[in-house]
Every structure is written in C-alpha cells, then in structure tokens.
Fold this sequence. Notes:
- By secondary structure, the chain is of the alpha+beta class.
- It has a single domain, classed as 2-Layer Sandwich (HIT family, subunit A).
- Helices cover 23% and strands 23% of the residues.
- The strands form two sheets. It has a ten-stranded antiparallel sheet with strand order 4-5-6-8-7-12-13-11-10-9.
- A hairpin with a 7-residue loop joins strand 5 and strand 6.
- Helix 1 packs across helix 4.
- The two termini are 29 Å apart.
Amino acid sequence: MFTTRKIPDGETGTILEYRRETLTGLSCRISPERVKRGLNTEYVRKERAPDCPFCHPRVLTETPVFPDGSRIVRGESTTFPNKFPFAAWHTVTVITRAHSVDRFTSAQIGDALHAQVQSLAGQKGYPSIIWNYLPSAGASISHPHMQGLVDPDPPCLVSRYLSSGKDYLDRAGRSYWEDLKDRERSSPRFLFGDEIPWVASAVPLGEREVRALLPVRHIDDLVPCIPDLAKGIETILDFYRSLGTVAFNMGIFFDESGGNDRGFRAFCTMIARASPGSGAACDSSAMERLLQDPVILTLPETLSEVFRTGSPEKR
C-alpha cells in the first residue's frame, strides 16, 4: 500500500524516512529527530469572548439564515450559511454554546455532524465536512465550529483517490478501500474500531494523522454511522490532548451522490496542529505549502504504540 526509503545516520540510526502512497503518489518525509524542537506551548483557553458572533445569544441574531429564514438547531449546535463562502454551497455549524471547552463529547460532535448532513442535503456535487479548531489550525473564530462544503468538482485529495481508485478497481476487481481496511486491521498502525476502523495513516499528510475508514460512499448514507463516528472522533481528540495537543484539523470526504461506484469510500482524517501561543512555532512551511510534501515528526507506528500502551509523551 506504500513504499518507504530510509536515510540512515551512522551515530543515531535512521533519522529520515521518505514514504509514498502507492495508489495516489502522495508522499511525506518523516523526521522524528525534529520533535526535539518543541513545537507546542501550553494553551491557555479563554472562557468567553464578548465580541464573538458564535456565542449565545448573538449566534441567533448575528449569523445568516437559510433561504426559508431558518437556522438548524440540534442539541447545543446551531447551523447557518457561511457569510463568507469559499464553496458553491458552504454552511457553518457552531458546535457548543460555550466559547471554550475542556473536551468535546460524542453527543456534541454527533449533533454537529447530524446538522451538517442536514445542511448539505440535496446539494449537487462533492460534499466535505471540515473542522479547524483554534487559530493555529486555521480557524478565524476560536469558538468551536464545523464547516460543510459542496462543489461541482471534487477537492484535489478526493480527485486523486477517485481516479486512482477507479484504476485499482478495474485492475483488481475490488475496492482499494476494502483492501486497505483488511491490510491495516492487521498492521501495527491499527488503533481501534470494527465497522469503522481507525488507523494511524501510513503516509501522513499532517502531524499524527489518524484516519477512519467509513463503510459508505455518500453523505446521504452517513447518518447511521454518526454515533460510532462521533465516539471515534471523541476518542482521538482525548488522545491528542493526552499528548499535549489542543489544536487540530478534521476532514470528512464523500463521493458525489448518484453515479457509478468507482471504488471510492468516504473517510475521516484528523491531524494535530501546534498549540496557539506566543512561543509556538508554525508547523507549516514551504515544504507543506509550496512543495506539497509534508514533513512529519511522528512515525505512524510510534503513534499507534503510544495509543495502545497509554504512555503519552508530550511534544
């Protein structure tokens, strides 16, 4: 499923791995020694922000409404169109009433996912659900919120998996994603999960990348999976926090509704980001933004070992 090329060092052993995903050609460089730079600083959360448009009750008066004049309210969450969209259809789900929380529960996550599915229903194209948590992860507003996007063309990452997955299906007569599930369940990168397996991504696109391999293609079929998926997301977020990570990105990607099965399956991916703070270094550089070849600090096999043994090493 992937190839590895190691660059040895005479004194310390292997210091660099080049990994490439065979299906898509996606690649990364893993340099565990760089973790000694200490990217994270302690995060001090703000209990409230007086001018935050996502705090109650302002979220009910200062955010846009859908064409019928409504917002979607489910549990603590409130969903509405994005005021500054960057997709053909773009919605926002404010996840919690609190501006800042110690930890997210599966109920909060599940309600937000349900609301996202409802807000994207009926839109033609390729749906994605993303979550940028805290400014160091790209959030323009710190109050926890997810975003839903639908575009007529798939995102670049999904496009790679669609085209390469179709070639794999034509050659092998079976889905790449089913073969990936079978392979990863018995690999040292497997974390947990039955119907939805969670694995440390073999070729990470970001630090501590973890993926959930979903049993569906379309967002229309996600609802029965939401309780299990939300519990898994909660588990990974708690794991990240045990490692000293607060900020993160999450994405859930789907095929377009209808059409032929090209072998693609939806998946959820999560990556850890440097904690916001005056002393925190940026974890994105020219390697990620221009070369599109991320530099990763943690070996996936090491990440899964820490998850299983419960002996976190804060970095």
